[in-house]
UniProtKB/TrEMBL annotation:
Name of the protein in question: Phosphatidylglycerol lysyltransferase C-terminal domain-containing protein
InterPro entries to which the protein is assigned, alphabetical: Acyl_CoA_acyltransferase, LPG_synthase_C, UCP018688
Limits of the Phosphatidylglycerol lysyltransferase C-terminal domain: 21-301
Gene3D superfamilies per UniProt: 3.40.630.30
Length: 305
């Protein structure tokens, strides 16, 4: 097995694997795995024609992602790949377990492995998925608060300018991010490459080499106050990777959320707005949009005896 760090030139093999399984999980995009590669301290290998990714994060125990077939799923190949991953983990003095396993892929382990499995749902890393139409129209009693936020924005600020993200606006996004970090006492990382800000910078640096990335900014009274970045995750689902704004401007988040989806992804059925990371405020914010479903993810601990 040859293991290597994820590089921009690996985009084709990742896209082939992710496209093959048509996942709705936010991790299953090259942009996501690439931007967070330093935080995960990740490597990958192709074993039995399956994409295998291993993470060795600084603050957590090492884990493997679920092996992803590059072509048709083969149960025997899956089982053999798991055992090869066990050999690799054993050689590093680690105990193999799998994390962030999408619910529909749990059966691969149940059906292919002849060992006992401990399976634990991990709510903090599970994704919130919304109906696109709901995010655009904000109709119904449940979303009346979101409409009220936007209405208040128009009462207080009158209007806004929507600008599609391109290279000339990266510096504005970086300023917005810096101000967000200061206002939220965030982005203080022992290792800068583990911060969300650094992860976002990777999207800017490699913007032209990751096809499909889309973004937008909102300008209020002549000043950019919010930006967002997303992409198509599969043929009917988009994912929002980054969303930052000036919270002092009431309704700015509700506005950019609605406008970006309406102008960029109106053809989709679903929008994945990723996980809440176990942060109570983030959980409440994501729940307030009333997701149509959750993409539950699991840790799987095989008992090899």
């Amino acid at each position: 097995m040859e293991w290597k760090e994820i590089e921009i030139t690996d985009i084709d093999v990742f896209n082939k694997a992710f496209g093959n399984i048509r996942s709705q999980a936010s991790e299953m995009s090259f942009a996501n795995m690439f931007m967070w590669r330093k935080s995960y301290n990740s490597q990958f290998s192709i074993i039995n024609n399956m994409l295998c990714m291993v993470a060795n994060p600084r603050k957590y125990r090492p884990f493997a992602f679920c092996p992803i077939p590059l072509e048709d799923f083969n149960p025997e190949a899956f089982e053999d790949t798991v055992y090869k991953l066990k050999e690799y983990f054993d050689s590093r003095g680690w105990k193999l377990f799998f994390a962030r396993v999408e619910e529909r892929m749990v059966d691969n382990f149940k059906n292919c492995l002849k060992v006992d499995l401990e399976i634990k749902r991990m709510d903090a890393v599970s994704d919130y998925v919304y109906d696109t139409e709901s995010l655009i129209t904000l109709s119904g009693k449940k979303l009346s608060a979101k409409r009220n936020h936007i209405n208040r924005f128009f009462r207080e600020y009158g209007d806004f300018e929507y600008v599609e993200l391109s290279k000339e606006y990266f510096s504005e996004c970086e300023r917005i991010f810096d101000e967000w970090c200061k206002d939220n006492d965030a982005c203080v990382c022992e290792v800068p490459e583990e911060c969300e800000k650094w992860a976002c910078s990777q999207l800017f640096e490699y913007w032209d080499r990751i096809p499909g990335l889309k973004g937008a900014l909102i300008k209020v009274n002549g000043r950019f106050e919010a930006f967002t970045i997303g992409e198509m995750l599969n043929d009917d689902t988009a994912v929002i990777h980054i969303e930052k704004g000036n919270a002092d401007i009431h309704g700015i988040y509700a506005l950019i959320n609605r406008e970006f989806v309406a102008r960029t992804f109106p053809h989709t059925k679903y929008i994945n707005r990723e996980e809440d990371m176990g942060i109570e405020g983030l959980r409440k914010a994501k729940q307030s949009y009333h997701p149509s479903k959750m993409i539950w993810k699991y840790n799987i601990y095989p008992d090899f005896k």
